[in-house]
Amino acid sequence: MANKVLKRIAEALERMSPAPLASPDFESADAFVWHVDPDRLEPVREVNRVGLELLIGVNRSRDTLMENTVQFAKGLPANNALLWGARGMGKSSLVKSVHAAVLQQGLGLKIVELQREDLPSVSRLLNLLRGREERFLLFCDDLSFSHDDQHYKSLKAVLDGGIEGRPDNVVFYATSNRRHLMPRDMIENERSSAINPSEAVEEKVSLSDRFGLWLGFHPCSQDEYLEMIRGYCAAYGVTIDADTMRAESIEWQATRGARSGRVAWQYFVDLAGRQGVSLKQT
User: Fold this and answer.
1) Which of 82, 135, 147, 215 is the most exposed place for a label (fewest CB within 10 A)?
2) Which helix (H) or strand (E) holds 84?
């Protein structure tokens, strides 16, 4: 009886203080996803991404992010980056494509995707990566915060690093539809109801200021939209009469009430399917 009680106590202590996380095999992949409960880095064998040359209308952001990422991969100083702006204009695609382009240059760089809801665990992730020879690009897609969201405090551990500082081998890239990571109406509401309006939202708004790079993405023009589709057709060997493609693609975007890189890709997927062309690149 006593042995059973001692066993239950031991099991309870193990749950309260789990064994240290085993160091993952970073040689097994170039991309990982961070999971919690339990903490682990899961390797990604094949990253869902497009070629850098297929991202149209974002040349300036592409070149700036590429230069910053190459600097970091070479062990040189580099900034955290916030890619913000219009939906469907290739923000997350650019991060993944730049990572692939850096690998093609023979520079070792690991990308680790972190979900917004897992930000409270980021200090544990940083401790796992700190001191490693590898260099890591932490990536959080679609980052934003609501009025009462406290996750932004955890993000400061990545951007500022607290007393230890951000590990030299880690840089953080995030995408967001919001420049200040929180809705504009919430910013205005807090300012209007605060005793000191200038300080009401300073803590949250200043979070975006901690990113050294702000890269804006704006809605594309019709010419850029058509150029995106032509680029996809050339890359995947899809042929179509220019006038037919123009008429179909314009109708396609009209039915969706939007024009973006995502809408261009969706039209192209439909076109390729109708022509029996596989989009799986070998």
Assistant:
1) 147
2) strand 81-85
